[in-house]
Amino acid sequence: MSLDTPAIEARTERLTPHDARRRLEHERASRLTQLQAIDRAGHEADEQVMSAQKDTIERVLGEIEAALARVRDGSYGTCPGCSKSIPVERLEILPYTQFCVPCQHRAA
Q: Among candidates 64, 102, 66, 56, which has minimal Cα distance to 81?
């Protein structure tokens, strides 16, 4: 490898709609399972902690539903901030993300 070649290059392929939907459905099922576990914990856990966890999970479920809508309308994997493709590595790690990393930092 030459010194001017980056050690890690972003892959340029995109997730297929089928793969994206499968990953998102898995994420949704995981979050729903987490919500059920919180509900079962009931009185045994700290109410504030459980409420915060529940709010976070419900927010992520909303992001997953929005990502599934983007799969349906064909905009999944395209950053609305810069109109570039979101690297597939990012989508593999966080399949419901809406933005590429630079645009996410600007949005925060």
A: 102
